[in-house]
Amino acid sequence: MRAVGLSDSRTVGLLGAVVVALLSVSQTVRLSSQDTTRGKTVYVKWCAGCHGEDGKGDGPAAAYMLPRPRDFTGAVYQIRTTANGQLPTDADLMRSIDDGLFGTAMPGWKGRLSDAERRDVLAYLKTFSSFFADTTQRPVALAFGREPGSDARVGRQFYDSIGCRKCHGDQGRGDGPSAPTLKDDAGFPIFAADLAQSWRFNGGGDVAAIYRRLRTGLDGTPMPSFSDLIDQKFLTADELWHLAQYVRSLSPTRPPELRDVIHAPAARGALPAAPDDSAWNRVEPSWFPLVGQVIHKSRWFTPAIAGVWVQALHDGRALALRITWDDRSQSPDSAWRPFTQRVLASVAGDDSTPPAAALWPDQLIVQFPTKVPEGMERPYFLMGATTQPVYQWRWTSALRTSGRAVAGLARGIERFDSLPAGSAPAAQAVYDHGQWRLVLTRALATPDTADDLQFRTGRAIPVAFFGQDGSNGEFGTRMAVSTWYFLALDQPTPPRVFVTPVVAIAVTLGLGLVLVRRAQQRGTRA
Amino acid sequence: MRALGMMAVAVAGVVGLAAAGRSSQAGGTVAGKVRFTGAKPLMAKIDMSDESVCKAKYTAPPTEETVVVNANGTLANVFVYVKAGLPADYAAPAPAEDVVLDQNGCRYHPHVLGIRVGQKLAIKNSDGLLHNIKAMGKQNRPFNVSQPTSMTTERVFTAPEVMVPLECNVHGWMHAYLGVLPHSFFAVTGTDGSFSLKGLPPGTYTIEAWHEKYGTQVATVTVTAGGAKTQDFTFTAR
Question: So what's the architecture of B2-236 in CATH?
Answer without folding.
Answer: Sandwich (2.60)
